[in-house]
Amino acid sequence: MNVLLIEMNPFAPVSTPISLGYIAAYLKSKGFATEILTLGEDSSVSPVDLYHYIDSFQPALVGISAYQRTMLCVLGLAKFIKSIDNNIKVAVGGPQATFMPSEALGQMSHVDYICRSSGETTLLGIARAVQEETPFSNLSGVSYRDSDGRVHDTEPLEQPSDLDSYPSPYLDDVFDYSGMGEAIMLTSRGCPHNCIFCYTPRAFNHKITFHSVDRVMEEIRWIRKKGIRRLWFADPNVSYKWKRMEELLDRMLKEELKMQMWLQTRADLVNPEMMRMMKRAGVSTLAFGLESASERVLPKLDKHMSIEKIAEAIRITRNEGIEVELFTMFGLPHETFEDGLKTLEFVKKNQVRIMGNTNSQQMKIYFGTHMSQHYEDYGIRLLNTHRHAYMSIGSQYETNWMSYKEMQTLQDLWRAESLDRGRRIVS
Amino acid sequence: MTTSAIDKVCVILGNRDETKLKELNEFLSRLFPYLNLTCSIYVLATSLSEGMPQVERIQKGMKTYLRENLFVRYYLHFVHPVPQGGTGDLGYYEEYYYHPWRRGSSEFDREGYMHEEVPRFMLIPALVPGEEDDELFVGGLVEALKERFPLLSLCLREGTFSLVQNTDLRGRVEKVYYGPDPSETTAEIGCNLFAQDLLETSCVALRSGTLSMAFPCAPSLFITADDGLVYPCMDAFKRGEALTGAYAEVDLEKIIQRCEAVRERERDCRVCREHVIRQFSKLPLPSGRQSEVGILLDRLEVEK
Questions:
Q1: Which of A64, A110, A301, B304 is the most exposed place for a label (fewest CB within 10 A)?
Q2: pTM score of the predicted model
Q3: Could you report the predicted ipTM of this complex, rounded to two decimals?
Q4: CB distance from A36 to chain B under 8 Å?
């Protein structure tokens, strides 16, 4: 049976679809012929091309990655796929889907399943059910609409504690390397912290799981063989276990596997010794989450981080010649316009170049965050009360402390200081 | 995936003729499925008043297709001369032309708002100022249009370059296209727009180290509404080498295949690219762009 996985984002160039890669490798290991289709702003594909491709591959199941700002594409693709063959089952997964309310299925008539749990095991369950021609039986980790139109929620699936139990998308050659400039690595999943604006901790039950260093090394060796010399680590806190990171960098140095690397971590998880080693191994950029430089606002985000700590992390990182990026937001609970200005001033004062990920953006309220469920407790006032059930609050709000107009002014101020007109890489 | 998607379409409008307009729209509606998922369509008119009703008809067909295909995005560039008048006439042009045109895509603004994304249908006025046009009027028009249209372009030729050199107009539009004199006909202006795109993609490729002078440009089509002729690229259009019977062909797949074949086998893309680079090297472009053109010229010599 054939399974097609699609990621479409018309607002960014195509990048390695690492999450879909894991799912594809897993499904292939279980006997399902799986292909990945990625479409970005730099893709050149027509609806007719798409039709021919789907018609010739004949998938019985299509999984589509869903993000807040690609929901129209998701719905459009689902409809398009059903118009080719109404028997093809369509599942949506990814950040937008995990905590999407079940009633959203009522507004997504061409979608059969919403995946809630780990993509690999959840989609395998669906694939097996579709293969056995009982598409709505024995499912876990999903919400689905049965043949009579009734919506059902099933029990969640546990994610394995050992990430190595998932086959590697790199070692299994799931990706096409021909146009790949950099490889995206995912050496750990989840986050044990509790920042009020982030959905990751809840999606992974506040746990963090890791690949072994052996496995990561094997992947890096393979990626280098394919001619790739840049790595982009998508781990939320790559240095969470320093000993593990140290071993990885040490082995890369010993084997002379120098790669240009982009990493992100918490500012309280770095030290000078670590920075020296990272620099030697090829880390070119390290990104930290600052969020806000207001002493009044930052403690209220449950990030448990001080502004001094972030300033220190910037200093020691830069001392080793590593570029610093800072993730910041405005429109946060308790943040006034003046607080927002402080963040911009902090970034300028610390001479972090305002471009790429350092371009600030309004906080987005996604499904799965505490704030999404209890927005009134955070002083959030909705600007759009007629949202589709599949859309979260996103940026359509103002707060008791900042009007929407003030947020737009802040956005303009950031853009005016930006070296690349405010184009952010990570949303 | 095998792909033959058309990236850009240039429609040269003629006189308003109901039959020809109907034929054009029928052809376009069959063409939409073969366009890139994100596609730019340039419609060039001899005047605002002549062009607007025709653009609105084309827009209607595009809307129908977009409603059915939620993953498709279109940029409709309406390229037309700055209308005649003084600052006192701005309200008239806004009320009778630009405002109704903008309103015609409001459903996509609403859709974009509800989905927190940029609208899938972007209308872009591309103004062509004349040498006699009053700077104040052009500036006022740009200012007024900025209120309604998020994106706006200017198409200049040597005789009108001073508009962006002497005023702050450059900062108020999304894009400025440059072309040589005389560049007065819609056909010449259309070629200038595509030539600049070719130059810009060459610059991008140069920066990323992937430039090949002989590499074909992104697939595009030129269509002349008056005679219903279809050209497989800018170079073919300039040379008057149209595909025969394209308008009447029911099976669009055949047309796309023929276009591809012409682009791949019959065109000398290197000569076309060289011509474009040399054309821009003679223009008084902004300094950053000038230096890039210089590097491209050097590269041309190296590859010879």
A1: B304
A2: 0.93
A3: 0.93
A4: no
